[in-house]
Specification:
The protein is of the alpha+beta class. It contains seven helices and twelve strands.
Length: about 250
Amino acid sequence: SATLRQRQAQRLQPWAHKLRWHDALPERIDGVIVANEVLDAMPVQLLHWDGARWLERGVAAAGDGALAWQDRQTPLTPPLEVAQPEQHFTPGYVTEIHPQQCAFIATLAERLQRGAAFCIDYGFPEAEYYHPQRRGGTLMCHRAHRADADPLVDVGAKDITAHVNFTAIALAAQDAGMEVLGYTSQARFLFNCGLLAMLQSASLATRTHARRLVDEHEMGELFKVIGFARGCSFDAVGFAEGDRSHTL
């Protein structure tokens, strides 16, 4: 985003001599990567269970020029990410798989020679993501602080997003040679990193903003943090308490 890059440059002007903006990942990375709401912005593939087989769901032009959902009539082999047995899904069940997210993690692991990476996003472990009751998937659209579930309306005018399957992300990282440092809620991660101590001397406005990051009904529980390391030992204090890696 050129607009956000300009705003960042203005906000961070005192440290401009230390900063660079990249249009692509460097060939070699030695350091710490923080990816805040990066994974959820990547394209996903939609799958539809018709009661007997998995079909890939796509978009086709309707007769009146509008857009409509259309399933490929070639059945798919159920992906590994869909962990629940097929008989647990009801006909009409729609969900997503995330090949581009996993490919991004693999590329990140290839470039990260020595350091750590932390991905912050909203999502679930695989068992929650593909729960039989989540029959509509997680695909959502956002515009002007409003959300809806129909990406075929006002195409190009809305952000389209989907939750992250953190189990798939962890497996992709391990397969690419990275160590999983931990996985926890955003609230627990920030508390472990000393947020409460920092807020003791903060203004009322800052404390109010911080509550949105940690309250369970806001971003504190829905958002998760997963960490990886490669080529070094790393004391990941953010996962010191409340690590949920066992749920992945």
